[in-house]
Design goal:
The complex is a heterodimer of chains A (245) and B (390). Chain A is an alpha+beta fold and 245 residues long. Chain A has 8 helices and 7 strands. Chain A has 2 domains: 52 residues; 153 residues, 2-Layer Sandwich (Alpha-D-Glucose-1,6-Bisphosphate, Chain A, domain 4), CATH 3.30.530.20. In chain A, helix 1 packs antiparallel against helix 2 and helix 1 packs antiparallel against helix 3. The radius of gyration of chain A is 22 Å and the shape is elongated. In chain B, the strands form 4 sheets. In chain B, strands 3, 4, 5, 8, 9, 16 and 17 form a 7-stranded mixed β-sheet that branches. In chain B, strands 12-11-10-13-14-15 form a 6-stranded parallel β-sheet, with helices on both faces. The N and C termini of chain B lie close together (10 Å). The radius of gyration of chain B is 20 Å and the shape is globular. Chain B has 2 domains: 222 residues, Alpha-Beta Complex (Quinone Oxidoreductase, Chain A, domain 1), CATH 3.90.180.10; 162 residues, 3-Layer(aba) Sandwich (Rossmann fold), CATH 3.40.50.720. The chains are: A alpha+beta (245), B alpha/beta (390). At the A-B interface, helix 8 of A face loops of B.
């Protein structure tokens, strides 16, 4: 099966797991330093509170007592209830349901309209490998498996343990009206961001708010399927076309 | 190439910029043979349109010769002579299918900007800020035309540039304004603003069967054109109380339809007009809806107020109560250009109208900055400027 080529010029090569460990250590050191410098009982409590963070920084794992509270790579424990980030966006397309379904179910097509996806490759057997740009340009990778697939109705997937993100989601397809020529597509996505909720806060501060990103992705999908190309407004700057005459 | 670029309020310059390139398969590049300054360009010039950036190429009324065609465009070929509609439409979305071309879903790459302002985005426009997509405009030697297999209309050699150029905006815009009035036999139509859109609204009201057309403005050359070419009865708002005069002229009933061809920078001599001036100059309001207030006040019960004039933001002292009390129909929006092009080209070919009557100034592209000033200041009897970039 044809797979998407992965560009080699990804901004950062430091794995998120490493980054998180160093981040945790630095944060723990800062909090402990601050707490001790207060020379008071509340200060000491603050310092003591940073201990699990320091443990995670040193070992890469949360203390056992906390492990169950924090994601462990399993979508069910990481994303159940209100955990993780939930996104739900919908778009209406002037295309028949089967055409939209066919396009989406070829996962290699997704990077053509999902701006943060670098590549998706089909591993066969309902499994796929995903590479994306995370917050701050981090390269993140994970494997996923299809957990529900009903032709022209729904596609659902979840990430497999061992990847940089924990995510699960579904896309539903239904006729937008009675004439079989329109589709209403709804994406529901849950994920634990690569650097925890902190990552989402940082990302949103830089304008990459998840639901807005998905909304823009769906807008591009609509342009591709309806108009056949992505609208481009610019074209005067950064182009050295040379004189026409 | 040379292009007329925006550099700030009352600051447009003709600059050397890179030539446009084909960016998408459905694109075409047009060598611009004629382009005009639109009254709505003056809203940009006066700093009323947000999200303009330094160096943006202006202009949305242009025509020319196709010099390059994208590989996905099977309708145009090099050498075709075309007029380009100012609204950019994909032709395949829900709105294009409904003939609501200026509301196209797929032609504004910066739709999120417009969504922040209006909830949903209209189509992209040439040279009309980044809210409308940041497309480089047509006051240039060359222009890139997206979705060129849908928009541009081929024009016959038998018609000169000046006869067909205004198919790009002001003629269809005036025509849709009149069509929105749902003119019935015996109807009186009043038109505020005798700029180019107003002049074409007057002409179109006749074409669509109006019995009387009354034109309102202050500038003598515009009123004279409305009276001569437009065959309209005219009112000078500097001289008369417009709602009173319209009441008297219509037996106390009011015009059946009122067209606001002025938009957000209306002038006026009454108290509310000065109130608007003060508020907008203090940035407490964005638009000056003086003409619109008068149109609503003057219109007969159950009549239609049609708004081709451009509005950009929030209106203060908008008499919605009067509109409601009188059961008015309000119709507005950017022109659904593609709907009107073949129809109106046909009217020109049959000699029912020669749109070139509105041209008062013919210049080269280098004169653009001076012409913006002249047009804005309504000096030298300026009504319509046509520029020849080559």
């Amino acid at each position: 099966m044809q797979t998407t080529a992965f560009p080699s010029d990804v901004e950062s090569t430091m794995a998120p797991a490493d980054l998180m460990r160093w981040g945790a250590l630095a944060a723990a050191a800062a909090v402990i330093g601050f707490g001790v410098s207060r020379r008071s009982m509340p200060g000491l409590l603050i310092a003591a509170g940073a201990a699990p963070l320091a443990y995670r920084g040193a070992t890469g794992r949360w203390p056992a007592a906390l492990e169950s509270l924090v994601a462990g790579g399993d979508t069910r424990s990481a994303l159940s209830g209100s955990r993780g980030i939930h996104v739900r966006e919908s778009v209406r397309l002037e295309c028949p349901v089967d055409e939209v379904y066919r396009f989406w179910s070829r996962l290699e097509n997704l990077p053509t309209f999902m701006v943060n996806l670098i590549g998706v490759s089909d591993l066969g057997g309902g499994r796929s490998h995903w590479i994306a740009r995370g917050p701050g340009g981090l390269r993140i990778e994970w494997d996923a498996e299809i957990i529900n697939e009903i032709q022209n109705k729904v596609l659902a997937w979840r990430s497999l343990p061992g990847g940089d993100v924990v995510s699960a989601g579904s896309v539903t397809f239904r006729p937008a009206r009675g004439d079989d020529r329109g589709t209403q597509l709804t994406v529901t996505l849950q994920y634990e961001p690569p650097a925890g909720s902190f990552g989402a806060v940082v990302a949103s501060a830089f304008g990459r708010e998840p639901s807005q990103t998905i909304r823009e992705d769906l807008r591009r999908l609509k342009q591709l399927l309806e108009a056949g190309e992505l609208a481009k407004g610019a074209g005067t700057t950064g182009v050295s076309a040379g004189a026409r005459r | 190439m040379k292009a007329c670029c925006y550099y700030g309020k009352e600051d447009v310059r003709v600059e050397r910029v890179p030539d446009p390139q084909i960016l998408n398969p459905r694109d075409a590049i047009v060598k611009v043979t004629a382009t005009a300054i639109c009254g709505s360009d003056l809203h940009i010039y006066d700093g009323y349109i947000p999200a303009m950036e330094r160096g943006d190429i202006l202009g949305h009324e242009f025509m020319g010769e196709v010099v390059e065609v994208g590989k996905g465009n099977e309708r145009l070929k090099v050498g075709d002579r075309v007029v380009v509609p100012f609204t950019i439409a994909c032709g395949h979305c829900f709105f294009c299918h409904k003939q609501l071309w200026s509301l196209c879903d797929n032609s504004n790459p910066k739709a999120w900007l417009a969504e922040k302002l209006s909830g949903y985005s209209g189509s992209g426009l040439f040279g009309y800020s980044h809210i409308y997509g940041g497309y480089p405009g047509g006051q240039a030697e060359y222009a890139r035309v997206p979705f060129a297999d849908i928009g541009p209309i081929k024009v016959p050699e038998s018609l000169g540039d000046e006869q067909v150029l205004f198919l790009s905006d002001v003629f269809p815009t005036g025509y849709m304004a009149a069509e929105n009035c749902d003119i019935q036999p015996g109807d009186t139509v009043a038109v505020w603003g005798c700029g180019p859109v107003g002049q074409f609204a007057i002409k179109s009201a006749w074409l669509l069967g109006a019995e009387r057309v009354i034109a309102i403005d202050r500038f003598p050359e515009r009123l004279a054109m409305a009276a001569s070419y437009g065959q309209a009865e005219v009112l000078d708002y500097g001289e008369v109380d417009v709602p009173e005069a319209l009441r008297a002229m219509t037996g106390g009933q009011g015009p059946d339809a009122c067209i606001d061809a002025v938009g957000l920078e209306a002038h006026g001599t009454t108290l509310d007009a000065w109130y608007d001036r003060v508020k907008t100059s203090l940035s407490l309001a964005t638009d000056r809806p003086h003409a619109l207030r008068q149109a609503i006040a003057s219109c007969r019960k159950g009549g239609t107020v049609s708004i081709p004039g451009v509005y950009g933001g929030w209106l203060d002292k908008f008499p919605l109560g009067a509109a409601f009390a009188k059961g008015l129909t309000l119709k507005m929006g950017q022109t659904h250009m593609h709907r009107y092009l073949p129809l109106l080209l046909g009217r020109i070919e049959r000699g029912e109208i020669d749109p070139s009557f509105i041209i008062t100034h013919r210049v080269g592209l280098d004169d653009a900055p001076e012409m913006y000033r002249t047009f804005r200041n309504k000096q030298d009897d300026c009504i319509k400027v046509v520029m020849r970039p080559h």
